[in-house]
Amino acid sequence: MPEPVNHQVNAARKTFQTLYQISKLLNTNLDPTTLSICIRLCENGVNPHALATVVKELQREVKAMNDAQLESSKTNATK
């Protein structure tokens, strides 16, 4: 790989690692793949505030579904 391209790749990797650390500090519960998708969406013009709202809502829905499934399995186990 030519030196300038290698430098760009290393800089991009370091930037992403920093963003991921910030994400963890803020307890976003985003894995690296999801964070990468969110970054690309923002780079392509998606409103960051709207994206954050959607991500939070999806996380709430997943939690509610998991809680309901857990409750259902507890109920079935006691029968």
Automatic annotation (TrEMBL):
Name of the protein: Mitotic-spindle organizing protein 1-like isoform X2
Cellular location(s): Cytoplasm, Cytoskeleton, Microtubule organizing center
GO cellular component, as recorded: centrosome; gamma-tubulin ring complex; interphase microtubule organizing center; spindle
Broad class of the protein's primary localization: cytoplasm
Family annotation (Pfam families): MOZART1 (PF12554)
Family listed: Belongs to the MOZART1 family.
InterPro entries (UniProt xref): MZT1 (IPR022214)
